[in-house]
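Sat 14:20. Reprocessing the chain from the morning session after the first attempt stalled halfway. Input below, unchanged.
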Amino acid sequence: MTKILTFCAALTEKLPASALEVLAAARHLGDQLGGAEIETLLIGQDVDAHGETLIQHGADAVFVVNHPRLEHPEGDVALTILEAAQAQLAPDVILSPHDDLSGGHVAPRLAYRLQTGIVTDCTGVEVKDGAIQWLRPVYGGKAMAYMTIQGPVQLATTRALAFEPLPADASRVGSVQALTEVDVDAITPRVALVERLVEAAEFEGLSLDQADVIVSGGRGMEDKENFAALRELADVLGAAVGGSRPAADLGWVPHSHLVGQTGKIVAPNLYIAVAISGAPQHMSGAGSSRTIVAINKDEDAPIFKVAHIGVVDEWQNVIPALIEECKKSTA
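Finished this time. Tokens:
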């Protein structure tokens, strides 16, 4: 039977939604293969309690690595643990979320170490003639392509919100146990952590990776102070705040909130783009959003070609009124 391993880095008090989405992708793939054993590698500090949640959402077995160093795991540390898990558990497929840790630092390097192929940022997976085909955006999100992997292990990362988590099933039974033969203290990162920077207070809270609604601003916002209006709208909607490359480079939003090809790849239920032209580099990061609302004074802005709802006007004439209407509807 095929064995699929999913990777999850969690906080003590919170299991990331991506962990359940990856499990859903694993189950979807396993069903097409005629059945598969789904295992999850769970790392973090004091995260054992999440094991049963993962079982209820599709895992057959959960292997846990607890350690204080894993509260905010460094890439080298997570990579070494995942490599050890692969050697011990021998999965045929390894799935990880396409987030900053897994998609950017761990999965591609693991593929190199295992001398196997990898497909990143997947939005779907199908089995055809016995071969696994991974679906992902190409050409800056302008097209979709199925890709196959050559190598001893199939590695893939999944885009946020691309797979709907399975409903919790309290009747599911599985094992939760420590991953043996992993000495976290003995791992020496090649890159030393010098300092962990805390985001500006106005951007703390909901991350782009976990947000169902994102409000993003671009160069047309004109200055940093104007982003206060977007943060107010985001507060009303329970949304995260993002920005385009010019907004990040000008310091109006932290680079951790940059949406685009060189920033975060997001797929929220609602993406509100304010004063963003819609360049391909930005839309490759936001183009998979289920509903895109564009607000721009330029009726010829490229973003209107992909937006589901478009408003041609100055943002100052739209955002304050939108905030008031949203407050009324949520009162």
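The mean pLDDT is 92.
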